[in-house]
Each structure stands twice: as C-alpha cells, then as structure tokens.
Write a structure and sequence with these properties.
Blueprint (H helix, E strand, L loop, with lengths): L3 E6 L3 H12 L4 E7 L2 H11 L3 E5 L7 H11 L5 E5 L3 H12 L4 E4 L7 H19 L15 H4 L5 H4 L10 E5 L3 H9 L10 E5 L5 H12 L3 E4 L10 E4 L5 E7 L2 E7 L14
Parallel strand pairs: 1-2, 1-3, 3-4, 4-5, 6-7, 7-9, 8-9
Antiparallel strand pairs: 10-11
Helix pairs in contact: 1-5, 2-3, 3-4, 4-9, 8-9
C-alpha cells in the first residue's frame, strides 16, 4: 500500500521540523513537501498531489483561511487539517477555518518541557486525524464532503420522528471525534425545533473550542445550543455540549436530571471523552 502523502504548510521552521519528526516516525505516512504560505501551498498541491494537507492559520502573503477557501474551490474533497494555537483568538480563527471547509484541527503544543514533549503532545492527535480522513484514491467515499445547506435542511421523514412501540425516547446522546465539527454542523441543519427531547454532546475538543462550537451550532440550528455548566437542568429542546477539559455525565437531583461535570482522568487520552 502506498504511504499517505502529507503536505505541511506553516511559516514556522520549528513547527515544520516538529511535524516532520512526528510524521516521518509513523509507518505509512510520508511528508512530501512544505510551504511557508497559502499562495505557495496552492502551487504545491497542484505539483505534489498530496493525500492530506496540514495547514497553519496565521501566515504571510495568504493566510490559512483564504487558502482554505481556495482549496475548496479547486479540490472539494482534499482532507485539510488546521494546525491551531490554543488561545481564544486561535480557537475563533480555527472555527472560521472549519466553516471555510477544513475537515478538522490539531492544537499546537503548549507548556512543553522541550522538543520531545512537543512531539508527544501532537503525535497521537495528528496521526489519528490523518488516518481517519484519508481515503485511498478510487476507494470509497470522499472525506467529509462539504454539505449543501439547502439539501440537508430537508424535513426529517415521518418514520424518523416515530418512537419504538411502547417506548419513550428521553434524550439523544452524541459522541464525536475526528471530523465531528463538520458532521455536527450538517446534522443540526436538519433537526427540527420541535424535536421534544434534550441532546447531550461530547465532542473531543479543548477548552474555548467547545464554547465556540456551541455558538456556531446555535446560529445554524432551530434548537438552543450552548456549552454545558455543572448543575444545568437537562430540558427538552436544549442542546448541551461538554466543555473542554471536563467529562460530562448526568444525574438525578430531586425531580430533575442535571449535568455533572468532572475532571477525572482522561479516557483514551481525551477529556471530555465520549465513553463517560
């Protein structure tokens, strides 16, 4: 099997060196080229035909957002992973990149104890996303095609609203990881305001990103979407998203069901994690 070809786009020499160390150490993945800005990246994509692109947000000449929009005009199905700083500004720009068509993102290392620690912070998340988003040429569906909002806002079929005989659905629980933000965006364009049950979501995301995801979905949905807080009462018609760095569970409190957040150990290296 041919290796997955990755194009690294970043104006930082340190980050390019970091990503090369991470990807070259992984069997079946090959860094085929580099670019220091979005304009050069478009030329490299034409020349090298990568399977996946790692794209920085803040760059000279052409930044990651503008580059992402151009990529989607020319290569609708090319998987793109944004490389984002773990700051409020970085989170906001990353969410804008997802709206522009990026498939997912990985956060840059922070508070590290050296280069080796930085490699460890980035390695699992980046490799997992590359493997999940890559589709062999000529094999199967493309990775996370960008939905047509007019198409996905069609009403749900009657049978989709129906309950199983003799049973009552009390909640919808959604877990998402790689590709989740775009999948949730597509899903929420089609959910009706009168759904009648609460929705609880765990999306594997760091702090700040989950709040912005909730705001993004709230703007696009007929339902009320927000980041959950400890003690929130779970109510029909509301959508609660687990905040970054907290597991989300629910518990009974008198006659109500309420959200219980905790910072117990990460599960599968994630907090929030879907399993809890």
């Amino acid at each position: 099997m041919e290796p997955i070809k990755v194009l690294v786009v970043d104006d930082s020499v340190v980050i390019r060196r970091l990503l090369t160390a991470v990807l070259d150490a992984e069997p079946g993945i090959e860094v085929v080229g580099y670019s220091t800005n979005g304009q050069l990246a478009l030329l490299k994509i034409e020349q090298l035909e990568p399977d996946v692109v790692s794209l920085d947000v803040m760059m000279p000449v052409m930044d990651g957002i503008e580059c992402m929009r151009e990529i989607r005009k020319r290569w609708k199905d090319l998987p793109v992973i944004m490389f984002s700083s773990l700051t409020e500004e970085g989170a906001a720009v990353t969410m804008e990149a997802l709206e522009a068509g990026a498939n997912d993102f990985v956060t840059k290392p922070w508070q590290t104890e050296g280069f080796a620690d930085s490699v460890n912070q980035v390695s699992d998340a980046l490799i997992q996303r590359i493997r999940a988003l890559h589709r062999p040429k000529g094999g199967g569906a493309s990775a996370d095609p960008i939905p047509d909002p007019a198409a996905v806002r069609a009403p749900l079929p009657t049978q989709a609203r129906a309950h199983a005989p003799g049973r009552s659905i009390e909640a919808i629980v959604i877990g998402a990881s790689t590709g989740g933000p775009n999948a949730l965006n597509e899903l929420f364009l089609s959910l009706p305001a009168d759904l009648g049950v609460p929705i609880l979501i765990t999306q594997h995301m760091p702090p700040m990103f989950t709040k912005l995801l909730a705001e993004r979905l709230n703007k696009r949905s007929d339902l009320q979407v927000r980041e959950a807080s400890d003690g929130d009462i779970v109510l029909p018609g509301q959508v609660l998203i687990a905040p970054g760095d907290f597991h989300m569970r629910v518990k009974r409190s008198g006659t109500s069901i309420v959200v219980a957040l905790d910072q117990s150990e990460p599960v599968h290296s994630c907090r929030p994690a879907v399993d809890p």
